[in-house]
Specification:
7-stranded mixed β-sheet; 6-stranded mixed β-sheet; globular; alpha+beta
């Protein structure tokens, strides 16, 4: 059974389970300031035996043309083992409930570990089924010793460079962030992606606050070489976004940056640091970053990727065809 729950009940059900920050109540503050997005509600799923099995927090997104869908980023959060049967049962009841509550919804985007016929690859955006998670629940010496040799070597070289400095700069103002954003734009031009406007990240910092959204920066003689925005909740940290200049690569500025982040988080009692995505056969787009991320942790962790779950199948099929047509026109114009 799926039912709507308030924040208090949601927190009581999830007690003892680490909530990804996007599934935590604090994330609704960020949803409230993002254009065409708002917090939709929270649900709880109880299995056939009456056991609370999962909780899920959903944001409502308005797409181009006015269609609506729900986005459960890093959800549902399972309180029991998410077997293929449990995942499917939750999705079946979720679709039935959403058709009752909001018949205008076209689909819901959520995460699932097991591929199934009712799931579709996401229409747009990046997802992954493997990531690199550094275990910080051990001594700093053990964290460093567990890294690959190339990771330890890069950090030692950067530490010897007296022109480099690295520090947490959480709480920076809009003017200070503009300096970081310039490096982000440079990274996007080099790697072939377009970053969100700076306001998106400033809003994230402001709404989540320094407890949950932290900024770290590596500088050379005052100039920004690399930076990272890290999200923290329930003792777990996630590398959300970051950038590095061309100069940073030769200086191992990003290696030094992430080592400082891990040291700081470890000192604060955070138990894990997720570097947010690694390449795989199904999702090769992040393969270029896998070598860098596995410097800090040799093991790859399998995670649930995002999928689209149609609520109104015919409307979702129309969206698929419309997006394919748009991409075809864009490709012709580029040629």
């Amino acid at each position: 059974m799926i039912r709507p729950v308030d924040d208090t009940t949601y927190a009581e059900l999830a007690a003892g389970t680490a909530l990804p920050i996007e599934q935590a109540p604090v994330w609704a503050r960020f949803d409230a300031v993002v254009a065409d997005r708002e917090h939709w509600g929270r649900l709880a799923y109880t299995d056939d035996g009456g056991t609370p099995a999962a909780v899920i927090s959903l944001a409502m997104v308005r797409g181009p043309g006015g269609f609506r869908y729900l986005w459960a980023k890093n959800g549902p959060v399972w309180l029991v083992e998410p077997t293929p049967e449990r995942e499917h049962a939750l999705r079946r009841e979720l679709v039935d409930k959403l058709r009752q509550l909001d018949p205008r919804l076209v689909f819901v985007r959520l995460h699932a570990m097991h591929e199934a016929p009712d799931l579709r690859p996401v229409l747009q955006g990046i997802t992954y089924d493997r990531t690199v998670i550094v275990d910080l629940d051990r001594s700093e010496e053990d964290i460093f010793a567990a890294m690959k040799q190339q990771g330890r070597r890069a950090i030692r070289k950067a530490l010897k460079d007296e022109s480099l400095s690295v520090a947490e700069e959480t709480g920076l103002d809009e003017t200070a962030f503009a300096e970081l954003y310039d490096v982000f734009v440079e990274t996007g031009e080099r790697e072939g992606f377009g970053p969100h406007p700076a306001r998106r990240y400033l809003d994230m910092l402001a709404t989540l606050g320094p407890e949950h959204a932290r900024v770290f920066v590596t500088r050379r003689e005052g100039r920004v070489l690399a930076w990272a925005l890290v999200l923290v909740n329930d003792g777990a940290a996630l590398y959300s976004v970051g950038a590095s200049s061309g100069e940073a690569r030769k200086a191992y500025a990003a290696d030094l940056l992430h080592w400082h982040i891990m040291q700081t988080l470890h000192a604060d009692g955070v138990v894990s640091y997720d570097l947010a995505g690694a390449g795989s056969d199904r999702f090769p787009g992040l393969s270029g970053l896998t070598q860098f991320k596995t410097k800090f942790e040799k093991e790859i962790t399998e995670v649930a990727p995002a999928w689209d779950l149609p609520v109104r199948g015919w409307a979702y099929d129309l969206l698929v065809r419309a997006l394919a047509a748009k991409r075809a026109v864009t490709a012709r114009l580029r040629r």
